Amino acid sequence: MRLSSCLLLLSATPREEEPLENNKGKVSMRILAVTNMYPSERFPGRGVFVHEQIQSLIALGLSMRVLFVDRRREGPSAYYRMGSRLAEVFREFDPDLVHVMYGGVMAERIVKRHHARPTLVTFHGSDLLGERLSGWARKLISLYGVWCSRRAAKAAEGIVVVARHLLRALPPAALAVNVRVLPCGIDLDRFRPRDPQSCRRQLGWSSCSFHVLFASSNGDPVKRPWLANAAVEETLRRGIPAELHCMTGVPNSTVPVWLNASDALLLTSLHEGSPTVVKEALACGLPVVSVDVGDVAERIETIEGCYLAQPEPADLASKLSLVHQRRARLDCRSRLEDLGVQNVARRLHALYELVTGKEKAADTPFIPKRQIP
To answer: Which of 9, 107, 361, 373 is 20 to 30 A from 296, alpha carbon to alpha carbon?
Structure first.
C-alpha cells in the first residue's frame, strides 16, 4: 500500500525526495515524526502545534518526514496497521531518530517494535493521566492507553513532557533516560497584541459586552463546558454584560483575532498538560482566568491581571469580575520568549543530538537499549 494518504514529506528543498543539507555540505539529521494529531481538510485546526513544531525544525535545517496516523478516520485499528507504512518509510527515508509525538498505543507499538533507530516520545497530558469524565468503555480504553504510555516511556531513549507535573506520571524506570520538560512553542509573530475593537468588528461582536472566550473541544467533558457556562451566568447576575464565546472549529489563522477580540480567557478543564491557548492568550495580552490545572499556575504566576480560581461558578465569576474592573490588557511578552517556536525547536534539536549520540561522538554507532518486558 502506498503512503500518499498518510505520509507527508516536509522539506525546504525544491525536490522533495532529496534530504536537506547543512552549511557544511553534509546530509542533515533525518527525523521521522509520527503523530495522530495533524491538520487535515476535515479538521484544519487539529494538531496545528505539531505542524508548527515540524516547520520550525525544518527551518533549523533538519530533514523531516511526518507519518500521520489518522485515528479519527481509520479508528483505533490504525495503530495496529502501521507496520507496512513504517517499514516503507524506513526503507525510503532511513531516519536517524523516530519522534513519536503522542503517547498511548501508537507510542508503545513504535517504541517496542522499532529499535533499529533511537526513539523519542512526547507526552501531552491525557496520554499519561487518562480520561476521568468519560463513560466506562472510554475509561477502560484510556486506562489501556496510559498503560501503553508507561511501557513506551520505559523503552524509549528520550522523553519529552509538555509540563512539569507530568513527570510524576512517568514510571520510575523512565526517569533514567533523557527526559526534558518542553512545552509546545507558539508563533510570537502571529500571536501578538492587536486592536481589540477592530477584531470585534471583524467578528461582528458587540462593543459593549464583556467577552469571555472558552476554548472548547467539541463538547469534551474534560473541558467542563457546563462550569464555564455557570461561571458566565453568575457573572451576568452580578451586573456585568458578559458573553461566552466557544472557540470550536475556528481556523488557526483566525485564532489571534478571537483572542484579541476577547476580554478574558476562561479555562475550566479537569486536567490538562500545557494548554497552548493559555500561552497564545498571554502573547496577545489577554487576561486569563483558570482553575489550577496543568502548568497554568506556572504560566500566569506574578502576571498582574491573571487569576487562578476554585472550580466553582462563584469564584470563577469573582475572578472574571476583577478582570472586568481592571479593564486592561497584559504586558508580559518578555516572559514568553523562551516559548517561541524557534527557541523550542533549538532545544528539541539539542535533545535529538543527545539521544542519537551526535552531540558527543558523531561516529559512535547507536546501541539500542535493552527492551523492558
So the answer is: 107
